[in-house]
Amino acid sequence: MQGKGLIKFLVVVVAIACLYSLSFTFVTRKVERDAAAYAKGDMTKEKAYLDSMAGEVVYNLGIAQYTYREAKGNEIALGLDLKGGMNVTMEVSLQELVRNLANNPKDENFNRALENANVRSKSSQSGYVSLFVEEFKKLSPNASLASFFATKDNTAHVKPNSTDAQVESFLQREASSAIDNSFKVLRTRIDKFGVTSPNIQLQQGTNRILIELPGVNDEDRVRKLLQGSAKLEFWETYDNMEIYPMLENVNTALASTLNETEKDTKNSAGSAVADSTETGLLATLGAGQDSLDTDSSDNQLAQQNPLFNLLRPATGLGPNNQPMLAPGPIVGYAQLRDTAKVNRYLENQVVKQIIPANVKLLWGVKPSPRTPEQLELYAVKPSGVDAGPILAGNVITDAKDDFDPQSNSPMVTMYMNSEGAREWRRITASASADPNNKRAIAIVLDGVVYSAPTVQGEIPNGVSQITGNFTIEDTKDLANVLKAGRLPTTAKIVEEAVVGPSLGQAAIDAGINSSVLGLVIVLIFMIVYYNRAGWVANIAVLFNVFFIMGVLASLNAVLTLPGIAGIVLTMGTAVDANVLIYERIREELRLGKSIRQAISDGYKHAMSSILDSQITTFLTGMILFFFGSGPILGFATTLMIGIITSLFTSIFISRVIFEWMLTKSWPITVSHRWSENTLQNANYGFVQHRKRFYIISTVVLLIGMISIFTKGFTLGVDFKGGRTYTVQFDRPIDLEEVRGNLNETFGMNTEVKTFGGDSQIRVTTAYQIEETSDDADKAVLDKLNTGLSKISGIEHEIVSSQKVGPTIANDMKTRAIYAGLASVIVIALYILLRFRKWQFSVAAAITTAHDALVIFVIFSLLDGIVPFSLDIDQHFVAAVLTVVGYSINDTVVVFDRLREYLGMSKYKNVATGETINLAINRTLSRTVITSLTVIFVLAVLFVFGGEVIRGFSFAILIGIVVATYSSIFLAAPMITDLEKKKPAESLATDTKNKTTLNPVKA
């Protein structure tokens, strides 16, 4: 084997990289265990402990040190279904945007066009602005859009004589800008919320923003935080020299308070940390800090100057190069990891008495290039109405990033309306009145300072240029922030899922149990069937799982329950490449080759099948990734990573192990006596009897179609909209009684199903489905609790909830349909390009569509009969596409062997049907073995994986069985009917006289 040294080097490098990525998870888990041990069940204490450790170094590698916050950002993040928390989809109201840009006209046709566009947008793939323009032209064919949008605020973009196309282009730009600005505002708010490992994504091409907040349990606070309007303000500022004496007093008071606290703590009963509720300052200390402060002099300095030890005063060099306080509104700098401690210091009751009411201290939004890893602290002056900002941000009409024509450096140009221009003239005149002490004006969004430019002179016309040490990205961000202040629209929650921590822990346990058991079964089977070669495959599988977890950690991927299912499924399919290799090695050994030559030729001849089969599965994973959302992305990510790592481990690592065994002269066996001849001389007449299987499949599909059109499916909430709640009771309940009470309370039919046991149910209701407001959420929840409370003597708890608006549901259905069609088309094209025969491509497309339809049929027939949920939802779509990938995987292996035979001269004059039959029989052992390993792990996942993914695992389990059937009985035999060169009639139908073909020499 060539390149052994390189492969060994790669294995070592990848292993070290994966171990490094996973090490952060081990470190953070230890800190969290310590927090739990300290808190002893008190969640307030536990949270205070973790907050105190946020800026503490918990991982020291010598060349690099990581705080708990930094380590947490590098760990494997758990999704909501594993950790609990909140998942929301925000939708920017473009209807509100268009109406506000036109200054809320009273024109009937204009407002009707808005409503019609809103209705159409729920089922159309066109953008809202395009739909509005279409509707407006229908209702007012002779009216001009410019007559509505040529307002004073829009004068820079829309003139009275602007064409409809120009106005539409303006509206498209404003819509795109509103969505981008909303995204930036929401991202800033989430960063301030303090959520560990938040995830926020802008859905490209839509007006929706996806947000995941793991571990959050205060849903009302999240809703208020996310749905509030962006608050842009302008504040007068203090000079650093005015504030420094106050900070000195704060530092002195803190030193005194800390010393007293330390004495009290030492006199307590040996407690490492005093009760965090005694004072907000104590939570800052955290348990175990003494062990981190190894330098006694630094520790003493920190005790004497607690504030200035964390907040470095803003200083510079004076005329004689002497240190002095730097002029301007910045009063200090703190490391990112220390900002939480500084905040706690400033919130201390003693400190609050020192800071005057007319002083506010605000952080900058991000570190500046001059001070990387540090945030600036600004001092602003409440001097406006009600002791607030001096000017509100709603006076901004536009802002754009530009270049200073004199210095050619990036800058921002800001425009104000007439009212704002008058106030701005007064403010800027006052700020620049003293030429020796020009003041800065802070631009603040949601309590964070984005910029604080120094006013150089009076600005009379409301047009300002903001210059400074900006990058192009900085000016873009600042322009977006300024425009966010006049954002003429809001973002509302249209989809929401709340998962309780108890359900999350149950999901973790189920996922771990199923993963471990599935892995054990695969390992045992490989040893039992392949003898010593099975041990080699097992080592490769273990490396594969290790690499998957390491890559997930390095990519900061979020691990979800479907992601765990993807790992379990990958363990089953990871042996596929080894099975292909081992079956080919066994064929080579039967030809009388030595073990060394058989291994070499086995790897060589199996490579084509391995690559083709894995690439087709990878393509379905890519389609899932691009069309899926939420947990499905986790499944797709895991599946694609698993395919790449399994190729590396099964092809290279197993080969290196075999080479090492050969150099040591260790005996290598690829079977036991009982398994060495399994299906060796298989010669079943698959092609001769193909029409029987055509009939069987047709009958099943016809029966299924009748069920689909009469009985239908149960659509999950993400496909039909509505609200779903998982309810836990303290003892088993009567399902019919619950259903009857809820039907009466809601005044409509309510879907009620058991969910993982007799004491837990899942309730789905379409009550107020069109309403997505907080009031509607509360109304539905009140109705639910009223109906459940009618069952006397039984306590209930809502452990999770999900809300999906009708627009989201329609969009998900559309994406699911596109995903299905795309998968079939992409796979068919790959087969066509790879095998150069349209017959192969058509047969593959028909059989994959057949497999998907059979799963739909089974879900329709068994829905309501089996004791678990068979909802058609996103997880179901992921399962179907996974089966499609597996089906084509199986089919490609047969096709690859058929292509090999068709290229041999000895088969030039043999009927195509006979050659196809031989190809199926020669790959039958591999097909059966691979299917069995996958079925084993899926059966484990189905039984032990938990109720949340039982329907998902059932769909894949049934699909694997169907895919195995179709790859053997339908796909390859179908080529006989598509290929007309050598008709199938040459095949003998009499079993006594039919021709048999011996194994082919390579």
Automatic annotation (TrEMBL):
<feature type="transmembrane region" description="Helical">
    <location>
        <begin position="693"/>
        <end position="710"/>
    </location>
</feature>
<comment type="subunit">
    <text>Forms a complex with SecF. Part of the essential Sec protein translocation apparatus which comprises SecA, SecYEG and auxiliary proteins SecDF. Other proteins may also be involved.</text>
</comment>
<feature type="transmembrane region" description="Helical">
    <location>
        <begin position="928"/>
        <end position="946"/>
    </location>
</feature>
<dbReference type="InterPro" id="IPR048631">
    <property type="entry name" value="SecD_1st"/>
</dbReference>
<dbReference type="InterPro" id="IPR022813">
    <property type="entry name" value="SecD/SecF_arch_bac"/>
</dbReference>
<dbReference type="Pfam" id="PF22599">
    <property type="entry name" value="SecDF_P1_head"/>
</dbReference>
<dbReference type="GO" id="GO:0043952">
    <property type="term" value="P:protein transport by the Sec complex"/>
</dbReference>
<protein>
    <recommendedName>
        <fullName>Multifunctional fusion protein</fullName>
    </recommendedName>
</protein>
<dbReference type="InterPro" id="IPR054384">
    <property type="entry name" value="SecDF_P1_head"/>
</dbReference>
<comment type="similarity">
    <text>Belongs to the SecD/SecF family. SecF subfamily.</text>
</comment>
<feature type="domain" description="SecDF P1 head subdomain">
    <location>
        <begin position="384"/>
        <end position="488"/>
    </location>
</feature>
<dbReference type="InterPro" id="IPR022646">
    <property type="entry name" value="SecD/SecF_CS"/>
</dbReference>
<feature type="transmembrane region" description="Helical">
    <location>
        <begin position="840"/>
        <end position="862"/>
    </location>
</feature>
<keyword id="KW-0812">Transmembrane</keyword>
<feature type="domain" description="Protein export membrane protein SecD/SecF C-terminal">
    <location>
        <begin position="490"/>
        <end position="662"/>
    </location>
</feature>
<comment type="similarity">
    <text>Belongs to the SecD/SecF family. SecD subfamily.</text>
</comment>
<dbReference type="GO" id="GO:0005886">
    <property type="term" value="C:plasma membrane"/>
</dbReference>
<dbReference type="InterPro" id="IPR055344">
    <property type="entry name" value="SecD_SecF_C_bact"/>
</dbReference>
<dbReference type="GO" id="GO:0015450">
    <property type="term" value="F:protein-transporting ATPase activity"/>
</dbReference>
<feature type="transmembrane region" description="Helical">
    <location>
        <begin position="510"/>
        <end position="530"/>
    </location>
</feature>
<dbReference type="InterPro" id="IPR005791">
    <property type="entry name" value="SecD"/>
</dbReference>
<keyword id="KW-0811">Translocation</keyword>
<feature type="domain" description="Protein export membrane protein SecD/SecF C-terminal">
    <location>
        <begin position="793"/>
        <end position="980"/>
    </location>
</feature>
<dbReference type="Pfam" id="PF21760">
    <property type="entry name" value="SecD_1st"/>
</dbReference>
<dbReference type="InterPro" id="IPR048634">
    <property type="entry name" value="SecD_SecF_C"/>
</dbReference>
<feature type="transmembrane region" description="Helical">
    <location>
        <begin position="633"/>
        <end position="658"/>
    </location>
</feature>
<dbReference type="GO" id="GO:0006605">
    <property type="term" value="P:protein targeting"/>
</dbReference>
<keyword id="KW-1003">Cell membrane</keyword>
<feature type="transmembrane region" description="Helical">
    <location>
        <begin position="564"/>
        <end position="585"/>
    </location>
</feature>
<dbReference type="GO" id="GO:0065002">
    <property type="term" value="P:intracellular protein transmembrane transport"/>
</dbReference>
<feature type="transmembrane region" description="Helical">
    <location>
        <begin position="537"/>
        <end position="558"/>
    </location>
</feature>
<feature type="transmembrane region" description="Helical">
    <location>
        <begin position="874"/>
        <end position="895"/>
    </location>
</feature>
<dbReference type="InterPro" id="IPR022645">
    <property type="entry name" value="SecD/SecF_bac"/>
</dbReference>
<dbReference type="Pfam" id="PF02355">
    <property type="entry name" value="SecD_SecF_C"/>
</dbReference>
<keyword id="KW-1133">Transmembrane helix</keyword>
<comment type="function">
    <text>Part of the Sec protein translocase complex. Interacts with the SecYEG preprotein conducting channel. SecDF uses the proton motive force (PMF) to complete protein translocation after the ATP-dependent function of SecA.</text>
</comment>
<comment type="subunit">
    <text>Forms a complex with SecD. Part of the essential Sec protein translocation apparatus which comprises SecA, SecYEG and auxiliary proteins SecDF. Other proteins may also be involved.</text>
</comment>
<keyword id="KW-0472">Membrane</keyword>
<keyword id="KW-0653">Protein transport</keyword>
<dbReference type="Pfam" id="PF07549">
    <property type="entry name" value="Sec_GG"/>
</dbReference>
<feature type="transmembrane region" description="Helical">
    <location>
        <begin position="952"/>
        <end position="972"/>
    </location>
</feature>
<dbReference type="InterPro" id="IPR005665">
    <property type="entry name" value="SecF_bac"/>
</dbReference>
